[in-house]
Write a structure and sequence with these properties.
This is Permease. Pfam families: EamA. Keywords: Membrane, Transmembrane, Transmembrane helix. The chain is an all-alpha fold and 301 residues long. The chain has one domain. The chain contains 14 helices and no strands. The chain is globular and about 65 Å long.
């Protein structure tokens, strides 16, 4: 599938909208709880990818899994942690808490790449990390004062950006060593590992047919399809564009939970989230501008 730049932008917006339906959908489940929710969503994601990926990449996708080596399986473990922690966190705390915490992913990736690979960070990125840290500290401070499930859920949600940061760092290191990891088969491995890990914890099954329909929809529409489409978009869009558009998931997700499940975000979450997202947007925009100036100067030279 080949896309023009405007169509890739539109498709990436659609992808973020599909990602954002998890929270509001989880609020309409009748009986399924915690690890059972994760098990069914991961299983339906796996089954969907077993159909979708051969259509995109042919049967060679299965050879990529067999021959991917340790790095692909490490990436798969990271995906499984993200799948599991995300849904468990949604059962413990608000959609807004989870999504704002996940928005830390790009900055945590930058820090981890600095620590493990030695990537140098620009001054603007350090500033963005500081501002986002203040936002998260403000939001987490309110959660710690409340205690209970809210605090636990927010801490579980923090596993998602940490696993994502490790995932991208592993991919970058492998690419630097001349080994390319195809992330889409790694997602399929992650769905498999997440389903296997949560199966023993899912008993006794309590999901109603209504729940299973919703969870099947999450596996297909919220993960499998947007995963495949985002890979197509990433071939056309620049990294800053993808990073900025991905932040729409936070906005869409909070809005959908507010509108579709009457879950109004707390003022502390909105304030802390504004600091996090503002820091990310400014960092990406400044980086984009700097790259444009460098390209312009190199052409003129």
């Amino acid at each position: 599938m080949k896309l023009s730049h405007p169509r890739a932008l539109m498709m990436m917006v659609l992808v973020t909208m599909m990602w954002s339906i998890a929270g509001v959908t989880a609020r309409h489940l009748e009986s399924a709880k915690s690890f059972e929710i994760t098990f069914w969503r991961s299983l339906f994601t796996l089954l969907s990818l077993l159909v979708i990926l051969p259509l995109f990449q042919g049967r060679e996708v299965f050879a990529k899994v067999r021959n991917g080596g340790a790095m692909l399986w490490i990436s798969g473990v990271c995906w499984s942690v993200m799948f599991t922690a995300f849904m468990v966190a949604l059962t413990l705390t608000s959609v807004a808490n989870v999504l704002v915490t996940m928005a830390l992913g790009p900055l945590l990736t930058a820090l981890m790449a600095r620590a493990l690979i030695g990537h140098r960070l620009a001054a603007r990125t350090w500033a963005a990390i500081g501002v986002a840290g203040l936002g998260i500290a403000y939001m987490y401070g309110a959660q710690f004062s409340l205690g209970g499930d809210e605090m636990v859920g927010t801490l579980v949600a923090l596993c998602v950006p940490f696993a994502g940061a490790l995932n991208w760092t592993v991919v970058q290191r492998s690419q630097a060593q001349g080994r390319n990891i195809d992330l889409v088969p790694a997602v399929m491995v992650g769905a498999l590992l997440s389903a296997l890990a949560t199966l023993p914890l899912a008993y006794p099954f309590q999901a109603t047919p209504h729940d299973l329909r919703l969870l099947a929809g999450l596996g297909l529409v919220q993960l499998a399809i947007p995963c495949a489409l985002s890979v197509v978009c990433a071939r056309v869009l620049k990294a800053p564009e993808v990073s900025l558009l991905a932040l729409l998931e936070v906005i869409f997700g909070i809005a959908l939970a507010w509108w579709g499940a009457n879950e109004a975000p707390q003022a502390t979450v909105l304030t802390g989230g504004a600091l996090v997202i503002g820091a990310l947007v400014m960092n990406e925009l400044l980086g984009w501008k700097q790259q444009a100036l460098q390209r312009s100067s190199s052409r003129s030279a």
